[in-house]
Amino acid sequence: MDGKFPAKEAEKANVDLPLGGVPVAIKDIINVMGQPCTCGSKILRGYRSTYDATVIQKLRAAGAIPFGKTNLDELAMGSSTENSAMKLTRNPWDLSRVPGGSSGGSAAAVAANAAFGALGSDTGGSIRQPAALSGVVGFKPTYGRVSRFGLVAFASSLDQIGPLTKTVRDAALIMNAIAGHDAQDSTSLNEPVPDYAATLGTDLRGVRLGLPREYMIEGIDPQLKAAISAAVKQLNSLGAEIIDVSLPHTDYAVAVYYILATAEASANLARFDGVRYGYRAENPRDMLDLYGRTREEGFGQEVKRRIILGTYVLSSGYYDAYYLSAQKVRELIRQDFVNAFEKVDALISPTSPVPAFKLGERTADPLQMYLADIFTIAANLAGICGISMPCGFAEMDGQRLPIGLQLLGKPLDEARILQIAHAYEQSTDWHKARPPVDETAKKT
Ligand code: GLN
C-alpha cells in the first residue's frame, strides 16, 4: 500500500457521520484527487488524478478517509496481482502465496488489518476472488448500482466497484455510502438505495438457496469442497431450504468473458497513447513512433496479450464468429440466472476452485490463471450481485489458507445477499480469524 495516512483529516473527522474518521484503502485504479493513479501500469507513470471518483466523493461525504492506493494487476487484468508493474503483493496468511487479484492489494490490506475496509473493482471476479484467497469479505454490487465515474475502464459492460471488509456489516456500511444513481455514469441505475446495514439480522427461514450443479466440478480442491458442503449444511440448519439448480451454459463463461472483456479493453485502452496521460516514449521520430513506442514500453505482457486478442475478435471477418457469437452466448448465460432465480433467492458456490496458490505458480500459463475465475465470471456477464466470505481453512504445507463461499443474488437484491451472508457469518467464527503475525512481513 502506498500513501501516508492523512492524520490531519482524521483529527478533523466528523465522528457523527456513519463512517466518520474511518480509513478506507483504495484500489489504485480509482481516481483520488491529487494522488497518483497508476493502475499498476508503467503507462500511467507520473499521472496524478485531477478529480475524485464519485465513490471517493461519496466516501468523504459519509466521513470516511480514503487513504493509501493499493496494488493490483496491471489495469485490473489478472487473478494474482503478479501482473502489477509496481510491486509484489503477498498473501498475509502465507507470504509465499498470492493474495488473489486483481484487487489483491485491497484484500491483503484488509486481511492484514492495515485498513478498516477497501474499495476494489470486479470485472470478472476481482473483488470476490482476492477476498476468498485472503480471508476477507468482498462484495460485487449489481452492474450499475455503484457509479463507475472515476474508475479507469477495463471492460465497461462488466466493471463494477465494491467493498472489501472484515465483516458483512462493514461491507453493508460501505455500500450505504457508495451506492446510488450518478448522472456522470450513463450506466448508473436510478433506483432507490435501501439501508443495507439496517436490514441485517433477519433469519433464514423461508429463504431458498440454489446449488448450481455445474459449479461442483472436478478439479475443486477436496478441502475446499468439504468446507463448502459444511457451509451449505450450516445455512440449512439456519432455516434455508437448499435446492438443486442448473446453469446449463456455465461451460462457456470463461471463453465468452475473454472475448468480450478483451474486445472492450482493446477499445478502452486506446486512450493511452503518450499524448494525454502518464508515460511518453522519449525522442519519437514522428506521431506513429510516439504511439507505438509509448504503448510498447508502457504496457506489460498481459495487457498487450489482451489488446491483441481484443483487436482480433473485433476485426472484420472475425467479428461475427467471435464477438457477436460471444454476445449471444452472454445472453444465454444471463437467462440461466433469470431461470434459476425463479426457483431460488440466491445461489451458493465456492468463490475460487483452489485456495491461494504459490507466487509464480501460474504466471507461465495464462490459461491456468484465467481459470481462477471460473466461478466468478458468469455473475459479471449476467450483471448480478455477489459476495465472497470466509467459510473455513485448507491446510497446505503446514499453513492455514482461507476458503471463500460465494453467494450470488438477483439484480438489485444486494440487501438480501448481505442479510444471508450476515446470518451465516454470525453463526460461525471464520470472520474472526486473523492471519499470523509474521516478522518477515515487515521486511518485504
Ligand atoms: N481475473 C479476471 C481477468 O483477468 C478478472 C479481472 C477483474 O475482475 N478485474 O480479467
Description:
The protein is α/β, with parallel strands linked by helices and 444 residues long. It has one domain: Alpha-Beta Complex (Amidase signature (AS) enzymes). Helix content is 34%, strand content 14%. The chain has helices spanning 7-12, 54-61, 104-111, 128-134, 168-178, 222-237, 253-268, 287-298, 301-314, 320-343, 366-370, 377-382, 414-426, 439-443; strands spanning 23-27, 65-70, 117-121, 137-140, 161-165, 208-212, 241-245, 346-350, 385-396, 399-409. A ten-stranded mixed beta sheet has the order 2-1-3-5-4-9-10-8-6-7, with helices on both faces. Strand 1, helix 2 and strand 2 form a beta-alpha-beta unit. Helix 5 (168-178) runs antiparallel to helix 13. The longest helix has 24 residues, at 320-343. It is globular. The model has no long low-confidence stretch (mean pLDDT 95). The protein binds glutamine. Glutamine binds at residues 76-79, 102, 122-126, 154, 261, 373.
How many separate helices? 14
What is the class in the CATH system? Alpha Beta
Counting structural domains, the number is 1
Number of strands: 10
Separation, N- and C-terminal Cα atoms: 12 Å
Rounded radius of gyration (Å) = 21 Å
Unreliable residue stretches: none
Helix content class: 25-40%
Shape: globular
Q: State which percent range the strand residues make up.
A: 5-15%
The CATH topology assignment is Amidase signature (AS) enzymes
Average of per-residue pLDDT values:
95
Largest sheet: 10 strands, mixed
CATH architectural grouping: Alpha-Beta Complex
CATH superfamily: Amidase signature (AS) domain
Bound molecules: glutamine
Q: Helix- and strand-based class?
A: alpha/beta
Strands ordered across the widest β-sheet: 2-1-3-5-4-9-10-8-6-7
Task: Please trace the helix and strand order, writing H or E for each element.
Answer: HEHEHEHEEHEHEHHHHEHHEEHH
